[in-house]
Amino acid sequence: MTDALDRIAAALERLAPPPPTSADPQAHAAYVWRGDTLTAARAFAALPLAQLHGVAAQKAALVANLDRLAHGHAAHDVLLWGARGTGKSALVKAAVAHLQAAGASLALIEIATHDLGSLPQLFAKIADVPRAFALFIDDLGFDAAADGRALRSMLEGGAEARPANARLLVTANRRHLIPRDSAEQDPTASGQINPRDAIDDQLALADRFGLSLGFHVMDQDMYLAVVEGYTTAHALPFDPADAVGWATRRGSRSGRVAWHYIVDLAGRHGKTLG
């Protein structure tokens, strides 16, 4: 009977899929963290830095900070906050790719918000790798201050802080990551006796980022400059009235809206976009 059970167990082990193997952390330009496995990104395609308009100051600050990280110097965790579609995520990828093209030993690791709890495992996996890592968390936001406390301790002050060769790059639509809701006006609703306590708890996470870069809604002139930059790069005709009409129908002006217009324009002219 025991032999039969052993044979059945061995057969089941052979049928079971092998555990996923993590990618070599020194072999690829970009990765995706799957909660327990580091996977090479299938296609890491970043815009050239020159095609990102209206964010010159943010561009210079982020590239300088990542360059320090890549060379083993002191560098900040970065919060990129502001209006949707203004180029926060595009700038992160473009800055990393720009430095890689210049020979920097730097890789991007994208982390989904639902995998934040597994960051200590990722830290352990990359801590001894002779390479710098930009840990990219896109579109982060918390519904309550308590939700962000684990990440707060990893940024600063916790026993399991991120390693010296890695820094977090977080994008968010809210500057303070946590909504500044009625708890500020009615502190007793959240159990706070002092109204300042509620505000301090909300700001504590954002304050952990040494570098905070704001992105703001574009005016029409900047929107058209972005469109013109894209049309020049992709050999497409530049028609300001047509571009403004597209933005008007979409109800907003942003880098994302400009790119969607370029996709539509290229399609109308029978072209593909790399």
From TrEMBL:
It comes from Sphingomonas qilianensis. GO terms for molecular function: ATP binding. Gene3D superfamilies: P-loop containing nucleotide triphosphate hydrolases. Keywords: ATP-binding, Nucleotide-binding. The keyword Transmembrane does not apply. Pfam families: DUF815. InterPro entries: DUF815, P-loop_NTPase. It comes from the Bacteria. This is ATP-binding protein.
